[in-house]
Amino acid sequence: MHYLHNISIRRFAKRDLEQFAQTVGPQITGAALNLAVITDTHDRTQLSRTFYGPNGYWHVQEQHWLTNELPIDWRVHLGDMVDGSEPAVLTMWRLRNIINDYCADSVPFVIARGNHDDNDKYAEKNRRFAGSFHPWVYHDLVWEKMAQQVGGPSVSRHGLSVFDHGNVRVITLNTSDVPVKWVAGRKNYDIKKNLAVTAAQLQELADALKGAGDRDVLILAHAPAMTRPNKPGVRFNAKPLHELLRAFNEGLKGVLNCGNHPDFGGLVSFDFSDNPGKIIAYVAGHWHVEEDFSVNGIHYSVLNNSALMGWNHGLTTRYNRRWHRRINDPSEYAGYVISVDTKARRLRVFGYGAASPKRVFAY
Predict the structure, then answer these.
(1) pLDDT over 70 (residue 6)
(2) Rounded Cα distance, 335 and 327, in Å
(3) What whole-number distance in Å separates Cα of residue 204 and Cα of residue 173?
(4) Could you give the CA distance from residue 201 to residue 216 in angstroms, rounded to a whole number?
(5) What is the pLDDT of residue 8?
(6) Is 251 in contact with 272 (CB distance < 8 Å)?
(7) β-strand pairing of 298-302 with 279-284
(8) Quick one: which of 104, 237, 79 has its CA closest to 159?
(9) DSSP letter assigned to residue 82
(10) What is the full DSSP assignment across 271-319?
(11) C-alpha distances in Å from residue 59, one per residue of 9, 307, 338
């Protein structure tokens, strides 16, 4: 609680979040794992009435405030912390502000890499694709800070992170696992447009799943591996990623073939024959909607974006148009508390702002 004096929270938000905390607090006390989760804050310096702005950072601070009002174990951001549409120095500054807020909390945090977090949206507007981040920026600003926390998650070479909390293992994937090379001053891949997991990261995932022992596993990521009609949700290795989670649920052993693409291909060996645990769910953002669906027994739970999506913007989803989201109103933001009750085997998703108040799923 001693950090609260540093958090500026707007009056309307404080009223709204106090009410949310009073409602949700009693329902999550005693749960095995409680996460405060936001996604897609799309923070940027310039405020646009109909679209993104510095309110992304305010939403992070409001999550910080809420976390101290509830029995929260971990704070989570599922990516697209920044919009990545401004000069590199500005985006880096916004990114640093957000990370500093997570580091200033006594509650540990984990962050998934989003496809906007490398400033490629800004670089797209330049003929030479200038202003895009080199991989060290995200590594130094985010992954290193995550790994340095006392009792924080382990972070792999490919940005997959793992922590255990009681009888739950939480694995956060990097769905922007794109090996970048500079060719004649330009990046070979636009990270904003290429969601991917490499075979090497899938091997790290297979090892992390095996290491879960008898725990159940909650998967977090920016983008979901699959979409509702069983189509890929990422461009490279969506199906192998999904199949690996299925293999875990079924206690299988074998080798997964990710093809021979020089950047994303390879073989992944796995052995889940001694793992009695199950995948609780795969929780993601990225789509700017709320959805829950199951593909071959894997439950995908998609969370709405925190960033304000104004009524008049062409990119605003139908889902967000229905919320009539306005600035300085609870509809401006969207956030969640995800609670895992291992005794009742229930995943409960409580939402505030432009989010469903309560969703409950058996696992």
Answers:
(1) no
(2) 15
(3) 10
(4) 20
(5) 80
(6) yes
(7) parallel
(8) 79
(9) B
(10) E-TT----EEEEEE-SSSS-EEEEETTEEEEEPPPSS---TT-TT--HH
(11) 9, 8, 17
Place of tokens 């199906």: 239
Cα–Cα distance measured from residue 281 to residue 95, given in angstroms and rounded to the nearest whole number: 28
Q: Give the DSSP H/E element, type plus range, for residue 36.
A: strand 33-38
CB 173, CB 219: distance < 8 Å:
yes
- Over the stretch 180-217, which tens digit does the pLDDT of each residue have? 998 887 889 999 999 999 999 999 999 999 999 999 99
As beta bridge partners, residue 131 has none
Instruction: Please name the residue that has the structure tokens 């001694």.
Output: 274
The encoded tokens of residue 253 equal: 């052993």
pLDDT of residue 221: 98
Q: How far apart are CA 49 and CA 214, in angstroms?
A: 49
CA–CA distances in Å: residue 3 to residues 77, 111, 237: 19, 20, 42
Q: Is 230 left (phi over 0), alpha (psi -120 to 50) or beta?
A: left
**pLDDT confidence of residue 4:** 46
Helices 11-28 and 55-67 sit at what angle, rounded to 10 degrees?
Answer: 40
CATH class assigned to 30-362: alpha beta
- Say what percent of the chain tops pLDDT 70: 98
Residue 131 CA to residue 123 CA, distance in Å, equals 5
For residue 34, what is the enclosing H or E element? Answer: strand 33-38
Question: Nearest to residue 273, comparing CAs of 205, 201, 199, 206?
Answer: 206
pLDDT, position 2: 38
325-333 contacts, C-beta under 8 A, 24 or more apart: 325/354, 327/49, 327/55, 328/10, 328/12, 329/12, 330/12, 330/13, 330/16, 330/354, 332/55, 332/308, 333/13, 333/38, 333/55, 333/58, 333/59, 333/62, 333/306, 333/308
Structure tokens at 355: 């989010």
Q: What is the mean pLDDT of residues 151-171?
A: 97
pLDDT for res 310: 85
